[in-house]
Amino acid sequence: MHSHAVADGAHVCAVGAYTADMRECDSALAQRAGVWVDSHESAWHEAGDLIQPLREGVITQAHKSCGLAAQDVAAVRFLAEAAQRAELGVDVPW
Q1: Which residues pair with 63 in a beta bridge?
Q2: Which letter does DSSP use for residue 36 in this model?
Q3: Burial grade of 30 (CB within 10 A; 0-12, 13-18, 19 or more)
Q4: According to the model, what pLDDT value does residue 64 have?
Q5: Is residue 66 very low, low, confident or very high in pLDDT (cuts 50, 70, 90)?
Q6: With respect to CATH, is domain 3-67 assigned 3.40.50.720?
Q7: Confidence (pTM)
Q8: What gap in Å lies between CA 33 and CA 86, rounded to an integer?
Q9: pLDDT for the residue numbered 61
Q10: How far is it between the farthest Cα atoms of the chain?
Q11: Is 63 helix (H, G, I), strand (E, B) or coil?
Q12: Which of 22, 30, 80, 90 is the most buried (most CB within 10 A)?
């Protein structure tokens, strides 16, 4: 995603880049953004959206969610329970 395509104040949820060499956002957007991470260790190894601008000196601190299995499990449980309460979805036997 190029910075010029993003309006001031927009929320960007960039979650697809998962290696130091991958990125979804250019350095100019990273520089404009307020950025947070859920895991510094994961971000410094996996988040090319942050690693590359940090190496370039464009940004000095950041937040990026690289995903934690515990968060995925909690989200799925929350959604499954909400769907059951609302009688939505289909049970699929395992």
Answers
A1: 36
A2: B
A3: buried
A4: 52
A5: low
A6: yes
A7: 0.54
A8: 37
A9: 58
A10: 51
A11: strand
A12: 30
